[in-house]
Design goal:
The chain has 86 residues and is mainly α. Helix content is 38%, strand content 9%. A two-stranded antiparallel ribbon has the order 1-2.
């Protein structure tokens, strides 16, 4: 084998290791998912909880289910612009 083919092989192996390490690092940053307090509830129990809502799909084979209500996003207010001193 020539030196060039050895170098190319080493570069390819390094690239594979970098891709694998970056994928692992991204997975490690994800927060652990917490179980929803609404998941799996029957209709009556779901409607009794204020933080849950009962969803009835309009079409398809999906069954009705209970889910956590969406939390409205807070509006970001822009700071008032200061006029330059004269």
């Amino acid at each position: 084998m020539t030196a060039i083919t050895k170098l190319l092989g080493a570069a390819a192996a390094a690239a594979v290791l970098l891709v694998g390490a970056s994928t692992f690092a991204q997975d490690a940053k994800k927060p652990a998912a917490t179980a929803s307090p609404c998941k799996g509830l029957e209709e009556a129990a779901c409607k009794a909880k204020s933080e849950c809502q009962w969803i009835v799909p309009k079409k398809g084979k999906q069954k009705p289910y209970c889910k956590l209500k969406a939390v409205p996003k807070k509006k970001v207010t822009q700071p008032a612009k200061k006029e330059p001193a004269k």
